[in-house]
């Protein structure tokens, strides 16, 4: 079996309909830690509502490191707008990823921004 056939079979075995493979996130020791999978669909909501939406579809908002991976590998799957991360940044603020230019910044959590959900598969 070729490497490309193995990769295709692997992805087919882990992806559900509409999902997209974003890549592998490295752990603190620099070793592969988890596969990041982008779930279908998006919304525009304040941060807490966006987090609840992500949970309701079986995922979570991505962490900032995961958003960097999404920007690098699946930028075309996002509108050129800011998307919430799962990470708060102080009282009433949370981090987001701007998919126009790759900048990460914080925003008031009551603001309505775009949101996408991910799921993770731990690499053992």
Task: Give structural notes.
With 124 residues, the protein is α+β, with helices and mostly antiparallel strands. It has one domain (3-122): Mannose-Binding Protein A, subunit A (Mannose-Binding Protein A, Chain A). Helices cover 27% and strands 35% of the residues. The chain has helices spanning 3-14, 47-56, 64-74, and strands at 20-26, 32-38, 43-45, 82-88, 93-98, 104-108, 113-115, 118-122. The strands form three sheets. It has a three-stranded antiparallel β-sheet with strand order 1-2-8. Strands 4-5-6 form a three-stranded antiparallel β-sheet. The two termini are 23 Å apart.
Helix/strand layout:
Elements lengths: L2 H12 L5 E7 L5 E7 L4 E3 L1 H10 L7 H11 L7 E7 L4 E6 L5 E5 L4 E3 L2 E5 L2
Antiparallel strand pairs: 1-2, 2-8, 3-7, 4-5, 5-6
Protein name: DUF1566 domain-containing protein
Organism: Herbaspirillum chlorophenolicum
